[in-house]
Amino acid sequence: MGSFHLSQRQNPRFYRSKGSAVAVKREVLEVPKIPRATLKEAQAALLEYLHWTRSIPFMDAENMSKNSPHFLRNLLEKVNIVKDVRSSMARFLRYHPINEFEPFFESLGLKPWEYTPLLPRNLMFLSDDSLFFENYRVLCQFGIERNKIGRIYKKAIQVFQLESGALPLKLQAYQELGLSHSFMVKIIVCSPCVLIGDVDMKFIKVLEILRSMGFDHAWIQEHLADQDSYNWGLILRVLNIFSEMFCSNELVRLISQHPGLLFEGSGYATFSLIGFLLKFGHPIDQISSMFLQFPKIQVQQFVSNLIKCFVFFHEIEMEVDEIAKLVCSYTVLLGSCRLKKTNSLLSNLNVGKKRLCKYIQENPQELSKWVIGLRIVPLPDSGEDIESKRLKMKFLLDLGYGENPNMMNKAFKVFRGRGGELQERFDSIVNAGLDKADVSEMVTVSPQILNQSKTVIQSKIDILVNELGYPLSSLISFPSFLSYTTQRVRLRMAMYNWLKDHKKAEPDLALSTIVACSDKIFLNQYVNHHPSGPRVWQDLKAELSMDK
């Protein structure tokens, strides 16, 4: 794959070796400037070599020498300058033939990290692939700029593998259909796949439909981007669907205002949007109405915003039917809002998930105020919030936090949840059979155990007592047991029991010793003590993951 663009290599060889592999970072690196005089001499030396020694046509050799800065820079780094750059480089090239495809591809507009994977195998001279060079010459003669031919090669390498004489006939066939020369140049650059196989009838059909609606080739040319590729079959499907959804006047107005519905990603984003809305039960007539109100925004950005809103609703635990109502009733609003992240909104709005869901359902237009770039104003306290704070304060006072104001402030931040919920979670532990004073001490030592629902706490107590066989009193000495996931506890205990059965673990290890240590410590101190331990550990982990 050549070696000039990797200046880090030691003792590089300036030819392609079979099976060589080059890892090129896909980063945009600025080429350090070469002194003007040095650059001119180096370009002249490379031009002489390519044209006079390698017999490459002068125009192509000149283009290669003047438009391959990465290649030239790295070549200069390998040349030992004795008297002057030109003669030193000429001497170097005399004994170190180069991979000509590298400066050639770079002169066609490709960066090293783009063309490296495309370099022909087992070839280093352009003359070794006469078919490739012939098709390149046809494109040049047709009027395509050399620095854009690289994009064509990257998008559709098959164009350069066409049999001798085939490419001119394909170009002629399109021109005979009435397509202008300038229009075809644009199409070939951004959609070279039309030159593969027979005349692309889907492409022709798209042109016919758009022409019948009043959109000429100049309009189409204006809305095509050189750096993009186009799937004309997909664009045709979008046009067919739109033809069923809108009357002719509506469709013309829609496409003239939002050409991206057709051309962005070849209409893939439009398909994604329609499919997304249909899954939420959005009727076709409402989807049509939404498109007619479509905002001045890229289609892909609209879809991205809509999906992020859906994810946000899911993360604040909004009911599925309520999400569907919002998506169907406020599609344009959601697609226009680039929301901030969920955690940021919850923090800045100073609100819980439950209240936020209700607030959004009652005031969906407020979403437009929570977008990136705007300052978030906290929601005012509701009557429920005031009551919740009162109950939370009472709960913390009952635990003994009232004696120290600083401790009270810290406790307010540590204990998450509404006042009534905290008391309910606390009571669920007491009702399991523990003394209230013991539970108060447990919560003081490990306050995080109350930051989970009552149901989760009860399920973990059930696992401890009925599944693992430990007495409920074990929680008094190890209250943080309730903080660990059930999967972690089951995995550790299953592994410990296996090791105990194989005499590789003490039979009376404390529950905290088994569960609390990190995976690394548990593996080193227990699992690895048996030759089969690591395998059993992985098997148990896989089994529990499947059960989950």
Automatic annotation (TrEMBL):
GO terms for biological process: DNA-templated transcription termination. Keywords: Transcription, Transcription regulation, Transcription termination, Transit peptide. The keyword Nuclease does not apply. One of its GO terms (molecular function) is nucleic acid binding. The keyword Transcription applies. It comes from the Eukaryota. InterPro entries: MTERF, MTERF_sf. Belongs to the mTERF family. This is Transcription termination factor MTEF18, mitochondrial-like. It comes from Gossypium davidsonii (Davidson's cotton). The lineage of its organism: Eukaryota, Viridiplantae, Streptophyta, Embryophyta, Tracheophyta.
